[in-house]
From TrEMBL:
This is Adenylate cyclase. GO terms for molecular function: adenylate cyclase activity; ATP binding; metal ion binding. It holds the Pfam family Guanylate_cyc. It comes from Leptospira noguchii str. 2001034031. It is found in: Membrane.
Length: 424
């Protein structure tokens, strides 16, 4: 059984010996060519400044270490050789690893929680600087690198006379195991971050529930939905005005408008389907079926119209070209599903989509054109202006209405008091 004092003595001996090897490596580091000394590290210090600070600290922590005999080999040079790094020791500065390694030696001497915590933080800082896309970089590479360092440390401590080498090796091994657990923690976080980013990107393309089904089954079953509300927007005079804009201005203006629409869709639980040129398409009631979709779309349409009107007024005031908007929507059955193998797209089909498109194209600037089906569902809550029968391309004459706003007794588009149960 090791006493506390005996363990402290053993830790002092093995840490001092490894520090001796590390010290002479630092001396060689500081004799490398100037271009290697002036590289800026993650803490803002040059490589030379960082290494001089580490050398000074090492000399304070291990008194008279500068007077020790030069070891039979350079620890880091031999480590680099065994790792088969693509660079040569003399052509590279190890200041990043040196920052970590001094904390490792100090934690080897005293494994108190606060000292081990500094070692872990140094490890995290070191790995934050890695280029994880570099050719040849892998987790197996990191394991091999640490295995080589652990073996070198074992070789060093086995040259120390009159100590319990097995106990010394156990100390080295336990620290190495903790180090690898810290590295593993870093990679697990990176893996989780990558998964989260992958999900985020996928959810930008597909609804959350559809993305989950695709990931689980590698396919998405098409569905028929009895009732949904499809909305289209379009900008009047888009072609003429866009011809006067630079590509940057055109994209910026479209992004400004469509970003507002994205936000409004999110507020009302609508699913954006796609944009085609200057046209924006979204739907309520998919992929999760609900009975409020026509109401959600109506409120969203009013907010879209209002948002574009405010942009228009601002641009007119500043003498900037602006677009007027037409909006149309219709309620009815649709089919929905995912198409594509490499580039996925969630889309909807059916006559409801075609009629919704005709509602938009048969509308007027600054107005929201609504089909009779949608009107009948919304008329208890919203005000409308009847338009009568209007000719629509390939659809003959269709009864249409302009949606004007929410009835005063139900509040405003920003704050309503409608009982959703009435929408069943």
């Amino acid at each position: 059984m090791y006493s506390v004092r005996k363990m402290e003595t053993l830790r002092n001996l093995i840490s001092y010996e490894i520090a001796r090897y590390f010290y002479h490596h630092l001396i060689e580091e500081l004799s490398k060519p100037e271009p290697l000394q002036i590289q800026i590290g993650y803490d803002g210090k040059t490589s030379g400044e960082a290494n001089r600070d580490i050398l000074s600290r090492l000399s304070i922590e291990f008194p008279k270490i500068e007077q020790t005999e030069k070891p039979p080999f350079n620890l880091i040079r031999e480590w680099a050789k065994r790792n088969r790094f693509f660079f040569h020791y003399d052509e590279y500065n190890f200041d990043r690893y040196n920052r970590l390694y001094i904390e490792r030696i100090l934690a080897l001497r005293n494994n108190a929680p606060e000292i081990n915590s500094r070692f872990k933080e140094a490890t995290l800082n070191n790995f934050r600087q890695f280029d994880y896309n570099r050719t040849g970089f892998s987790i197996s590479f990191l394991i091999r690198v640490e295995n080589n360092m652990r073996e070198l440390m074992r070789e060093i401590i086995f040259t120390i006379p009159n100590i319990d080498h097995n106990k010394a090796w156990q100390i080295i091994f336990e620290q190495s195991k903790d180090y690898q657990e810290n590295v593993n923690e870093i990679f697990e976080k990176r893996l989780q971050d990558a998964r989260d980013e992958s999900d985020r990107l996928l959810h930008n393309i597909l609804p959350v529930s559809i993305a989950a089904e695709l990931k689980k089954n590698n396919r998405v079953a098409p569905v028929s939905i009895n009732s949904a509300t499809v909305l289209f927007t379009d900008f009047k005079g888009f072609t003429q005005i866009s011809e006067k804009m630079s590509p940057e201005e055109l994209i910026s203006n479209l992004d400004e408008c469509f970003s507002l629409f994205d936000q409004i869709c999110a507020e009302h639980g609508l699913e954006k389907i796609k944009t085609i040129g200057d046209s924006f398409m979204c739907v309520g009631g998919v992929p999760e079926v609900n009975h409020t979709h026509v109401f959600d779309v109506a409120l969203a349409a009013l907010k879209m119209c209002d948002a574009i009107q405010k942009l228009k007024e601002e641009k007119k005031k500043n003498g900037i070209p602006y677009w007027d908007i037409r909006i149309g929507f219709h309620t009815g059955p649709i089919a929905a599903g995912v198409i594509g193998k490499n580039k996925f797209s969630y889309d909807i089909w059916g006559d409801t989509v075609n009629i919704a498109s005709r509602m938009e194209s048969s509308g007027e600037p600054g107005k929201i054109n609504v089909s009779e089906t949608s009107y009948e569902l919304l008329s208890p809550f919203f005000t409308f202006t009847p338009r009568g029968r209007i000719a629509a391309k390939n659809k003959g004459e269709i009864v249409m209405y302009f949606l004007e706003g929410l009835k005063s007794e139900f509040g405003t588009t920003q704050s309503h008091n409608i009982d959703f149960a009435l929408l069943n």
